[in-house]
């Protein structure tokens, strides 16, 4: 109760809607997302289809750019609810669709809409929550889904091990529950930063001109792109490692991706959330970028062991602990760099760059696998690239040596 009183009054409707939606996100994180790729592999998905499946989340991030233009025309809360409901409705198709191709199609549809929700969440956070309170509220909105996902993942893993075809019930049910939790976004009031935006979406050249003038933001996007590309190389290799090399049960997959990882993510959001109230978020992005390179090291070791499941679990737990910090810090960094009315534009550019790396990385991973480079060697290569990217971002943070720009950066209409 005392925590509720510390939330700014104008931020409470957004925080309440975000917490309710977090329950739906928890169902997806626990019952669907950890198992899709392994399930597709066991149904005969080729490395090419696995690569396409691993790209699905990043098709959604690429879609964030075009979807950002709708924010200049429509109520942001309604857009957020619409993206969530439409995306989660794709999971209903698992009741009738079978085979790896159908799985890929449904997950691409799901993630395209999910890209819009990431964009609108950043924009709503920017509009409803002023800077001093953002880190604290963001921490709890991130913790909720991971914390609630733990028992869901355990139960789903047990059900799928007992009956692999149970996904035809589990996935659609998860989609229905998650869609219902997005409804509170429809009732969000508009705030000044939303209503103050121009009513007509700017032209693409005008958008590009705004971002192009912000040299520091472009530099950040470029270095962040390079630093995070490496881990995407391993996305089509992960289900091969789990299903073919380690022969992991669904319960093992649930332990790594749905229980240990989210549990450490919760701890990470608590720790990083406190730290981000006192330090430059750009420095946290740089540090976590480097340290998350430990996961591919552990997975490379696991691939060469008879029982590498414990190392897989440890690697995923460490990775999600670091990603919790990077997730919050990168969001806060982008919001600091954007102008008072440009949150959708800057967030859209950020997610578009993230989507692009997620498209390129799996192609590289597939090419390495098709070139008969062993799974162990691929994970060692990924580890080296992640460490190199982390050092590059640290060099960028040291070179800038300034706090992120304030919210007074020039906006599209020059105000």
Give structural notes.
- This protein has helices at 2-6, 12-31, 36-42, 47-68, 76-89, 100-128, 131-162, 167-180, 192-195, 204-213, 215-233, 237-245, 250-275, 281-291, 294-303, 309-337, 343-370, 375-400.
- It is mainly α and 415 residues long.
- The protein has one domain (12-186, 203-400): Up-down Bundle (Growth Hormone, Chain: A), CATH 1.20.1250.
- The longest helix has 32 residues, at 131-162.
- Residues 402-415 have low confidence and may be disordered.
Helices and strands in order, then pairings?
Elements (H helix, E strand, L loop, with lengths): L1 H5 L5 H20 L4 H7 L4 H22 L7 H14 L10 H29 L2 H32 L4 H14 L11 H4 L8 H10 L1 H19 L3 H9 L4 H26 L5 H11 L2 H10 L5 H29 L5 H28 L4 H26 L15
Helix pairs in contact: 2-7, 2-8, 3-12, 4-6, 4-17, 5-6, 5-8, 6-17, 7-13, 7-16, 11-17, 11-18, 13-16, 14-16, 14-18, 15-16, 15-18, 16-17
List keywords for this structure.
18 helices; 415 residues; Growth Hormone, Chain: A; 76% helix; disordered C terminus; mainly alpha
Mean pLDDT: 81
Quickly count the domains: 1
Would you tell me the structural class of the helices and strands? mainly alpha
Through-space gap between termini: 39 Å
């Amino acid at each position: 109760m005392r925590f509720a009183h510390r939330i700014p009054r104008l931020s409470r409707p957004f925080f309440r809607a975000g917490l309710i939606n977090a329950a739906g996100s928890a169902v997806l994180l626990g019952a669907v997302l950890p198992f899709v790729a392994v399930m597709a592999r066991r149904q005969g998905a080729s490395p090419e289809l696995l690569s396409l499946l691993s790209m699905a989340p990043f098709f959604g991030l690429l879609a964030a750019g075009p979807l950002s233009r709708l924010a200049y025309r429509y109520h942001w809360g309604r857009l957020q609810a619409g993206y969530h409901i439409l995306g989660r409705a794709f999971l209903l198709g698992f009741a009738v669709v079978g085979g790896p191709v159908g799985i890929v199609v449904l997950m691409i549809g799901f993630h395209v809409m999910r890209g819009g929700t990431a964009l609108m969440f950043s924009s709503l956070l920017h509009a409803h929550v002023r800077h001093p309170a953002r880190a604290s509220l963001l921490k709890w909105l991130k913790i909720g889904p991971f914390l609630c996902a733990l028992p869901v993942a355990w139960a789903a893993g047990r059900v799928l091990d007992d009956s692999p075809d149970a996904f035809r019930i589990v996935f659609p049910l998860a989609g229905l529950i998650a869609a219902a939790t997005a409804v509170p976004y429809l009732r969000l009031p508009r705030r000044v930063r939303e209503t103050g935006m121009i009513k007509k979406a700017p032209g693409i050249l005008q958008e590009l001109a705004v971002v192009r003038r912000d040299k520091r933001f472009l530099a950040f996007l470029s270095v962040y792109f390079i630093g995070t590309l490496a881990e995407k190389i391993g996305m089509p290799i992960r289900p091969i490692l789990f299903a073919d090399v380690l022969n992991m049960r669904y319960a093992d997959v649930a332990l790594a991706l749905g229980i240990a990882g989210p549990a450490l993510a919760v701890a990470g959001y608590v720790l990083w959330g406190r730290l981000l109230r006192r330090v430059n978020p750009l420095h946290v992005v740089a540090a976590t970028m480097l340290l998350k390179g430990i996961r591919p090291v552990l997975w490379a070791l696991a691939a060469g062991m008879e029982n590498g499941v414990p190392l897989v679990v440890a690697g995923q737990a460490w990775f999600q602990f670091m990603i919790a910090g990077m997730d919050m810090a990168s969001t806060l960094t982008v919001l600091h760099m954007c102008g008072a009315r440009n949150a959708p534009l800057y967030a859209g550019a950020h997610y578009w760059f993230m989507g692009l790396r997620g498209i390129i990385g799996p192609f590289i991973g597939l090419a390495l696998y098709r070139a008969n480079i062993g799974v162990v060697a691929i994970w060692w290569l990924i580890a080296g690239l992640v460490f190199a990217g982390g050092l590059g971002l640290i060099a960028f943070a040291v070179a800038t040596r300034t706090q992120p720009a304030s919210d007074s950066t020039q906006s599209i209409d020059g105000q």
